[in-house]
Structure formats: structure tokens, C-alpha cells
Description:
Elements: H1 7-21, E1 25-29, H2 39-44, E2 49-51, H3 56-68, E3 72-78, H4 79-85, H5 87-95, E4 102-106, H6 124-129, E5 135-137, H7 142-154, E6 159-163, E7 184-187, E8 192-196, H8 200-212, E9 218-222, E10 225-227, H9 231-241, E11 244-251, H10 256-267, E12 272-277, H11 287-293, H12 298-309
Amino acid sequence: MSELYDCRDAFAKALEDIARADPRVVALSNDSVSSAKLSHFAEVFPDRLLNVGIAEQNMVGMASGMANGGKIPFVAAAACFLTGRALEQIKNDVAYTGTNVKLCGVSTGLAYGPLGGTHHSIEDIAWLRAIANMTIIVPADPLETEQAVRVAADFVGPVYLRLSRMGVPVVHDEGYRFEIGKAVRLRDGNDVTLAACGTLVPRALEAAAMLEEEGIQARVINVATVKPIDRGAIVEAAVETGGIVTAEEHTIYGGFGSAVAEVVATTHPVPMRILGVPGVFAPTGSPEFLFEHFRLTPQGIRDAALDLLGSGGPQ
């Protein structure tokens, strides 16, 4: 089994490197310094990390004010509370004004599994995707995470970085360079497309390997930027493979799969399967249990592709 990495480590390391080179970079947290892996950042830059306590609305408002004062604030907090509790401030204080704030939702999706529905963050992409001026990035591995943090720091405007606490393998080679709005093809194939983001990317690659054993060549694309989404890559996949399976650690309503479907439906309609949490509150359990429960596994993705192919999809 491939070695697994925590993308929060890559986030923290990149943020420290950026802060050393740019005194404008600051960090804010909602009493989640250790959870966001920012303890060392606080030691190195004691005057540039603000722990506001459990006050997410104030935290986002403070970040907006700091950005208006010339700082580049990175707001790191559990995604369920950052995007849920402070949604009004994100909309009005950050997005509406186009303020240069970087929102870093950690422990996303089902990663807080044992803590139950209050801590599952399976609506954050849908909430933020509906807000104008918001760029949404969901890195798949530590290399992409590090690069996304650096790109976000240089980008002028609101950004939401979705960072899981679940271990993931490396899926990109050392030559990979992340670009906002650019999907990357990780595996060639013309029979069906498996499109994924974040923790589902390595699972999609495993599913493609399983399909290859059955004589099916599946294209795998990592769509790390959910907004603005790479319309060209999606249309190309629809035209060349005739069917698309999307997979995400998020509700199927309003998230990554919906974003892909919007492009497909308005450009080149093809059969689709959208995998995720099917519009329910996820139960309490380990992340591993929850991924199995919702069939967000290589086997589940493989089965969805076969279902698509067997029901009038591309042959």
C-alpha cells in the first residue's frame, strides 16, 4: 500500500515558507491551532497568529479588516464551523467586497466521522460555490496542497482551500504544477471518465485500474479547482469518452458533481453518475466506515462506471 500523507502538514509547511518571505502573511484560527497544524507557525511567528477562540464570525470579520489593512490573512478552522457558522461574514465581508482573504477549511468531508453529523462538513462546497467571487480549491495530495497554498497567497481575492485530515497517497509527479481553474488528466482512457477531487482522486485511480482488468480504459481527471471549473476538460471528456462518473467527499447536491453536470448539460449531454453523500445526514462512525457506507471506494466507483456503461452509456 502506498504511503499516506496528511495534507495539513503540507499546508502548514508552505504557509511558514510563504510567511518567511512575505511579512504581510498572517494566520487566524478558532481555537484549532493544533488541528490546523499551526502550532509551529505560532512558535516561529508569535505575533502573526491570532487565536480568536470559538468565534468564527468574528474571525472572518477580523481577517477581512486585516486584508483591507494590507495583510494576507489565512483563516484556518474546521470546515464545518468556518463555512457554516461564519457563512454570512464570508458572503458579506469577504466575497461581496472581493477582499483578499484565504479561507482554509480543515478536517473536511467525513474526516470527523466519530463526532457525528455536527462535525461532518459535507455542504461546504455547495454553500461557497453559490457565492460570487469565491475560488474553491480541493487538493488531492501533499504536493498539490503545497502548490495550492502558494498560488492562493499570490492570487488577489477570496479563496477557499478544502484540506482533509485523512491520509492520502501522492498522485502527482514532481513535475506537476497546480494552476487555478486547470484540471489534470492522471490516466488516459476513452471508454468512460472518472472525475474526482480531493480524497476521491486516489480512489478513482484505483477504480480505473480495476476497470482495466475488465478491458475498460477509464480516463481519470483530477479537478482540484471546483470553482472556476475547467469547462474545457469536462467537455473534452464528455465528447471523447461519452460518459462521466464524478466522486466527491460531499453531498451530491450543489457540490463538485453538480458543477460538472452543469457543464455537461449545457454543452454536450452524456450519461453521468454522481457519487457522494446522497442527500442525507451522514451517520456517526469512522471515516473508513462512512466511505464504505456511501460506497465512496474504488469498488463503488468501479461499479458506478459499469452501471453507466451497461445502461445505454458508451460501449
